Amino acid sequence: MARIGLEHRRTGFVRAVEWFCKRKYGQVPDPGKVGLHNRRVLTSSMLQELSAARWNALDPTLKALATMATSAQIGCSWCMDFGYWEYHHAGIDTAKLRDVPTWRDSNVYTELERAVMGYAEAMTATPPEVTDEQVERLKRDLSDAALVELTAQISLENLRSRTNAALGLTSQGFKEYCELGPA
């Protein structure tokens, strides 16, 4: 259960955010509802998300797996649910998305994909446990620009997942839309 209210007084700003979210996602995501308690934080977060959506040096599947591995490591069920929905609609292999929590035991991943998820988990540890060997392994297949983007993507997901988990946000049912067909 959310640790902060999800209801708001209906101002023009709230209506605009709701309209945008319903149009893009079909409903207002709970992190957006929480963010409406602090307009400046929400605005900064939205601008950051819009900017990050334009990053394009990293392969989309690697981005998805790094993001989902980070969410799984933190234990953010809201992020896992939404991430599955988002990346399903981006055309990422659903078998790969489903197996992220047990990626070490799954046979659906390439060596590079496993290296990316291991890096995501090492970055997410507190304190971070990234090794020189992990970075060298990634540099065999990724450009410097892609490695920087991967690192920034994992950092951004740490921010999202830790915020959502701390505020008690749990799965909102986005994944269910994928299982039923197009949203």
Question: What would you note in describing this structure?
Answer:
The structure is a single chain. The protein is mainly alpha-helical and 183 residues long. It folds into 2 domains: 12-54, no CATH class; 60-176, AhpD-like (Up-down Bundle). Helices cover 65% and strands 0% of the residues. It contains 10 helices and no strands. It has helices at 12-25, 30-35, 39-52, 60-74, 77-89, 94-98, 111-124, 132-139, 144-166, 174-180. α4 packs across α7 (111-124), α7 runs antiparallel to α8 (132-139) and α7 (111-124) packs across α9 (144-166). The protein is elongated, with a radius of gyration of 17 Å. The two termini are 25 Å apart. The mean pLDDT is 93.
Features:
183 residues, mainly alpha, AhpD-like, 2 domains, 65% helix
Topology:
Elements: H1 12-25, H2 30-35, H3 39-52, H4 60-74, H5 77-89, H6 94-98, H7 111-124, H8 132-139, H9 144-166, H10 174-180
Helix pairs in contact: 4-5, 4-7, 4-9, 5-10, 7-8, 7-9
The residue-averaged pLDDT reads 93
The total strand number stands at 0
CA distance, first residue to last residue: 25 Å
**Architecture of the largest domain in CATH?**
Up-down Bundle
Low-confidence stretches: none
Overall geometry comes to elongated
Report the β-strand fraction as a percent range.
Answer: under 5%
* Helix-strand category: mainly alpha
Largest sheet: none
Q: CATH H level of the largest domain: which superfamily?
A: AhpD-like
Q: How many distinct folded domains?
A: 2
Alpha plus pi helix count: 10
Helix content: 55-70%
Which H/E pattern describes the elements?
HHHHHHHHHH
The CATH topology of the largest domain? AhpD-like
Rg (C-alpha, Å): 17 Å
CATH top level of the largest domain? Mainly Alpha
